[in-house]
Amino acid sequence: MNRALLCCLCLVSISAFAQNGFFLEPGLGLGVTNVRTSSPPDPYPFQYGAVGWYNRTNVIFSYNPSLLIGYKLKGWTVTTGISFLKTGYKEDQLYFIDLGSNEPNDKITEFYYHVMVPLIFSEQFNIGKHFFIRPGFGFALSYNTTAIEKFEETGVYYYAGAGKNQPLTRDEFDKVYFRFLGWEILRLQAGYKVNDRLNIIAGPEYQFMLSSFLKDNDNYELTRAGTFKMGITWSLKAAKQPIRPAAGTETQKQN
Fold it and tell me: Which pTM was predicted?
């Protein structure tokens, strides 16, 4: 009997505030990004000439604003929409092959910008009356818009434009990088139910390319980003209010 009662209470807790239907999910993710590459890759053209990596790359700041729309059915949700993702890396030791140098002399930071269309599947597990967790996974298609380079001089060579952001031209970008790529998305949201329509959500999200960013059969570059995403969900369907009997109805029934 006690076990049956406990199971019933668990089921009630899981379904207590399930609001089925469509919802909006605006959010903002802040975190870090880096790349995984062949080591070392052969030289390939940047704006400042042929270069090669001889040390590992380092993380830089990433951000990921998004506006998604989803549909919830019982404990399951499917979400899609549009998001914007900044990725890249920083390389502390850069060798300029074309100058014949054997010593690192500069730093380079690469910034990439992507417009994403994700499709994410999640399952919600409620904890009490107000809290829940929502693990999810999905995929995204990105249109890769821009690559920007920034050089910082630490050696003896001088280059025009050092320290400034230098966007690659469209032709330079298309020569080196793919415009469209697939991604995988993993995330874990924790949430708090404010009322029947509004939830506050937050949690980690990890996005990574499924194939190489480079148009190079001999080398690869896989961009990835880990952010902490914060946002809300707003139900587009108001919860149905219980129908209350009109004044005097109960009295008439009793009579």
Answer: 0.78
